[in-house]
Hints:
- The protein has helices spanning 19-43, 154-157, 235-253, 296-312, 327-344, 350-365, 375-380, 388-408, 415-425, 435-444, 450-458, 465-469, 493-500, 506-509; strands at residues 49-57, 62-77, 81-82, 85-86, 92-98, 104-105, 107-111, 114-129, 144-146, 149-153, 170-176, 182-184, 188-189, 195-197, 204-208, 212-218, 221-227, 260-267, 277-282, 285-290, 322-323, 433-434, 474-479, 482-487.
- The protein is α+β, with helices and mostly antiparallel strands.
- Helix 4 packs across helix 5.
Amino acid sequence: MILVNIFNSVRASGLTMPNKRRMRFFLRCAALSAFLLVVGCASLVHAQSIDASISISVAPGRVKVEGTRAGGTQVWSFRNTYASVIGIGERIENLTLFDTQGANVPVRKLAPGEWKADRAATRFSYEVKMDAPIMATDAAYVSWLAGDYGFLMLGDLLPLSTSGDGKATTARLSLALPPGWNTGTTETKGTGGRYEIKDTVSAIFFVGKNLRERHATLGATDFAFMTTGEWAFTDEDAARMAQSILKEHAETFGGTAQGRALLVLAPFPRPMGAERWSAETRGNTVVLLSGRSPSKTAALARLSVPLTHELFHLWIPNGIALDGDYDWFYEGFTMYQAMRAAGRLNLLEFQDFLNAIGRAFDAYQSVSDRNKFSLLDSSRRRWTGSPSLIYNKGLLVAFLYDLTLRQKTGGKRSLDDVYHELFRRHRQSQARVEGNAAVLSALNEPADMREFTRRYVEDASAIDLGTIIAPFGLRVESGGVRAHVFVADSLKREQRDLLRKFGYNAESRAGLPHGRQTDKHHPKGMN
Length: 527
């Protein structure tokens, strides 16, 4: 049995600027972007498509990007901020532009990642410094090269769209790799060895000298696992764990999310503690950077934490056609669902599940303005406020929602059913709709849950965990600075039946080995 500690690290560490300064920075960027968008739309009349080549050099790590874009434009923009990373555009150097006749077009820099040409240009050439981010945990979000491996994320390497229509930028891309290097990606290789890319923002290439790869077919998904470096576990151990998690998630949703999926496990670009990890799921690619433990058991335990969470993102949000700031659901609720999946796979014991709930409650209480903003508000200000509320309050609300729904329906409905229905309604083949409205509609439908979501999602109601969970046979004890969640000393039959759905049994309370609890009257995924 693998035991995991869910909340020793949080994927999104937040920005390092003070909040007011950070807000001013974003407002200036927004104003400049709006101006450039107007100029760009006036000069760009063609579809957003790029034909490019990327050449990699090492020591130091740099790439040279050359190509053409369909339709000339005066505006040349590159990503400058993403998640908690600021200043990405400063890495762009030696930008040179040409018009359709091949004549050089003068260009001037307006701000990091922003240039304006004297007239419309179509052909470009520039270099990108590929140093790893100063904050190692930011390395899951941007392109970098370190030694003999790294990542090319086209979202920060290629020019951004200036059309303003929200449509993806497509590309035909060729890569020139150093001798002995190869690459891994989910992008399709077309004629002449060039990659045909449907959306440059989500395209990721794992590049390196000693990459290892394993393949498996899971339902309708062609799954690939790639890694480099030495780990305490075998490649087969990691791939097998990922496959079991993918199968579990597919059962929850009632189907696979992606035709192809790639999981990349790589060391951080610089040494980090064994307990540290950072991850990003973009399109159908999961990037997981991890510290390395000498213990196989401990290493696999830590690996299970981000894997259950990040692989879930292949379905939510990446497998559904929802837009907007509904991070509270696809991050916070997903953390809860990942814990439930880990429990069903015997990666998480029942008391460890309760311990994680206690840690989330501690983290929620540590936020000074926790009762000032609703989950909807917190999602809108995720990168300018405290992301802790999205993750920790979101997890707590998901737990309380699941408990309440199961109690109201006598155990016949659960949060799993909501995810199943949401995926059925809004798969990528469907028309895109606003995320918060779609999620709230799905949450509100079963067993008259409207009042619950109004109170804990739409409003900024405080969570009094001890009072709320008492009717379900659980209690909170505060020991020093920590809150601990336990099963009540005496349980009614209905409470015992409910908690068994979460993995509770009498033997586990006595310290005996704990296994997965199932109910023969309900299919897997309803427990």
